[in-house]
Specification:
alpha/beta, 5-stranded parallel sheet, about 700 residues, Rossmann fold, 25 helices, 6-stranded parallel sheet
Length: about 700
């Protein structure tokens, strides 16, 4: 019988050699970190991680985030050896392995579950998409926040339904990225004792030794953030690793950083320049040398020694199955005692909505003075939040300006225990204060969404510049994060060009999987939220005004529920045969309505089309799209206080686009609008020019 220490080493070396073989066969990838970090990950998974391979969606499982996404072969080897089962898109268990040996053999190839970097939703067991460094650790903060909130909200005496921990394995690169500092600072402030980052400190990046770029005292930095910092001097010492993980579990007043000293490409002693082991396959000769060093047959490929799979099942598998079964039994009893709370948990896990959740939605009366869409959105958000307990979020220090604070006294703020006695606090609060940390805020929101909460994150639209990477990953993962962006155009006025977004609408519209909604008035805001809350597999950007805009009279113009189709005819020619189409989004819709009324008084037949969401419109069938934008009507004018980029798809190249080709101007709103020509007279002139052009062509 193999001794325990020998079996541990055999399993660790199996992780290493599977990772080596995957990268070598693909001739692409990063074998070094999987080799060096294999003992660190193995010790965590086999001895501590509470995870049931039979159900990768069990709500109270521990989370393992591979923030060092370039080391994906490490995670795939673990998923295969652990026997993790795949979950269907509808969150149902299957008998198929999440990662098969064939998937490992087809690492980085089309259709393999072993993609170049881990992808959430494609490979079960991958808790979040990683690759861009720093994103994974920031998302892990959101997961840790979610656990604290779930525990504070739903746990009851003797019913500890939520008590899981979140682990993130990160690299030197993660530590260098600014987002990790933002996220770590907030995690320390919030005293997230359920969060453990494991820093694989191997002193190597692509360009060489970190001595040329990264010499700060990481432990001191994290201590200043309020973290417990631990050191493991040798990644191959399971005793030291075990003690570090035990210390984390015994720490209840702060997050933990475990700094593990490792050597990248451990076991490939002939490689003096470890950059090669980090960024490319080892090569045939180095693979043989590494395997010989591990006591492996150098000619074997994807070899899993007898006893390895059984050992993973006997440790991780057995512990996970037992813990999960006990939890299911606990939840069954909880369901009988707290049926309403249990229904909320069930609904949340399926990304559902409570019955009659939208009964609180009402219409706004017509008003020529109007209301800013940020204001109407705040009112709708508060109404909905009263019906959906897991709708929660905040802003990057701009809640008063974005109107995203939940006002009810029962909502409260998510606050850490006090500094002195580690008591008090309010982890059940639904208002989150992210501080001036836009990038971390958006990644944290993704972590909360991945934990099945329904988070929103808010700021000024211009500051999407600071958080685009996190926004992009939410779209890639197809998770329903709600982004609320206010101060949406040059009409915000005096703050000037630094705060006036220009290219941002075009940028987000170009992002696959992202829905952009720019409502035209308060009632379109209501319908926007109706659409938003029903999304299950797409993030959304709700883009709102700072300035008051007209609340349109819906007895004169079309009802706002046309928003759900992305674009709709708001006002039309009496015979429904317009000579010119006026297209707009947001605040510019009322500008087009004014132009329409003037044209109508002059006997010119026009149609106004509100286009709050290009993405929703493109999802409609061709018949509907042609009914809104008849192909035969080529006289078209688009109006938007933003970059003109992209509007050609709707105006054609002969149409007129009244937009921006420069940055903005610091001046009062009316002066800015006049300066750039956003006035009814300009729209009228453009419409007449289009009609004249068409007449001359005939």
């Amino acid at each position: 019988m193999i001794k325990q220490t020998q079996l541990d080493q055999l399993c660790i070396n199996t992780i290493r050699t599977l990772s080596i073989d995957s990268v070598q066969k693909a001739r692409s990838g990063h074998p070094g970190t999987p080799m060096g970090a294999a003992p660190t990950a193995y010790c965590l998974w086999q001895r501590f991680l509470r995870y049931d391979p039979e159900d990768a969606e069990w709500p109270n499982r521990d989370r393992f985030v591979l923030s060092a996404g370039h080391a994906s072969a490490l995670l795939y080897s673990l998923l295969y050896l652990s026997g993790v089962k795949a979950i269907s898109p509808s969150y149902e268990r299957t008998d198929r392995l999440a990662v098969t040996l064939d998937d490992l053999k087809n690492f980085r190839q089309a259709e393999s579950r072993c993609t170049g970097h881990p992808e959430y939703g494609w490979t079960s067991g991958v808790e979040t998409t990683t690759g861009p460094l720093g994103q994974g650790v920031a998302v892990s903060v959101g997961m840790a926040i979610a656990e604290r909130w779930l525990a504070a909200t739903y746990n009851r005496p003797t019913f500890e339904l939520f008590e899981h921990n979140v682990y993130a394995l990160c690299s030197d690169g993660d530590m260098m990225e600014g987002i990790s500092s933002e996220a770590a600072s907030l995690a320390g402030h919030l005293k997230l004792a359920n969060l453990c980052w494991i820093y694989d400190d191997n002193n190597i990046s692509i360009e060489g030794s970190t001595d040329i770029t990264f010499t700060e005292d990481v432990a001191a930095r994290f201590a200043a953030y309020g973290w417990l910092t631990l050191h493991v001097s040798d990644a191959n010492d399971l005793t030291l690793l075990t003690h570090a993980y035990e210390t984390f579990l015994a720490t209840h007043d702060r997050p933990t950083l475990i700094i593990v000293q490792s050597h990248i490409g451990y076991g490939a002693p002939h490689k003096q320049d470890r950059r090669e082991a980090h960024g490319e396959a080892l090569g045939t000769e180095e693979v043989r040398l590494a395997k010989e060093f591990y006591g492996w047959d150098p000619d074997s490929q994807f070899y899993v020694p007898k006893g390895v799979l059984a050992h993973f099942k006997a440790q991780l598998g057995s512990r996970g199955a037992t813990t999960h079964a006990a939890w299911e039994q606990l939840f069954a009893t909880y369901r009988m005692q707290y049926p309403d709370l249990a229904r909320q948990i069930d609904c949340m896990q399926l990304r559902g909505l409570p019955e009659n959740w939208d009964s609180v939605l009402s219409t706004f009366p017509a008003d020529p003075k109007g209301i800013a869409t940020r204001e109407s959105s705040g009112k709708v958000l508060n109404a909905i939040a009263g019906k959906i307990p897991w709708l929660l979020g905040g802003a990057a220090d701009l809640a008063p300006s974005t109107k995203t604070e939940l006002k009810d006294e029962f909502f409260g703020s998510f606050l850490a225990p006090s500094q002195d006695d580690h008591e008090g606090g309010n982890y059940s609060g639904r208002n989150f204060h992210f501080g001036v940390r836009e990038h971390a805020m958006c990644a944290i929101a993704s972590g909360m969404s991945l934990s099945k909460l329904r988070p929103y994150a808010a700021s000024f639209f211009i500051f999407t510049d600071y958080c685009r990477a996190a926004i992009r990953l939410s779209a890639m993962m197809q998770i329903p994060v709600i982004y609320i962006w206010t101060h949406d155009s040059i009409s915000l006025g005096e703050d000037g060009p630094t705060h006036q977004p220009i290219e941002h609408l075009a940028s987000l519209r170009a992002m696959p999987g992202m829905i952009v909604l720019r409502p035209a008035d308060a009632n379109e805001v209501v319908e926007a939220w109706r659409v938003i809350m029903q999304l299950k597999d797409s993030p959304v950007c709700l883009v709102l005004t700072r300035q008051a805009i007209v609340t349109l009279d819906r007895t004169t113009y079309a009802l706002a529920d046309g928003l759900k189709r992305g674009a709709y005819v708001l006002a039309d020619a009496p015979d429904h045969k317009p000579d010119v189409l006026l297209l707009a989004t947001g605040s510019e819709v009322s500008l087009c309505v004014s132009a329409y009324e003037q044209l109508k008084s002059e006997g010119v037949k026009a149609r106004v089309i509100s286009m709050p969401s290009w993405e929703l419109f493109e999802n409609q069938n061709r018949e509907y799209r042609d009914s809104v934008l008849p192909p035969a009507i080529t006289a078209r004018v688009a109006v938007e206080e933003a970059s003109t980029f992209g509007w050609e798809r709707y105006t054609g190249f002969d149409g007129i686009i009244l937009g921006l080709r420069t940055f903005g101007l610091s001046a009062p709103t009316k002066i800015v609008e006049q300066h750039f020509g956003f006035e009814p007279a300009q729209v009228v002139a453009a419409a007449k020019a289009q009609i004249t052009r068409n007449a001359l062509k005939k």
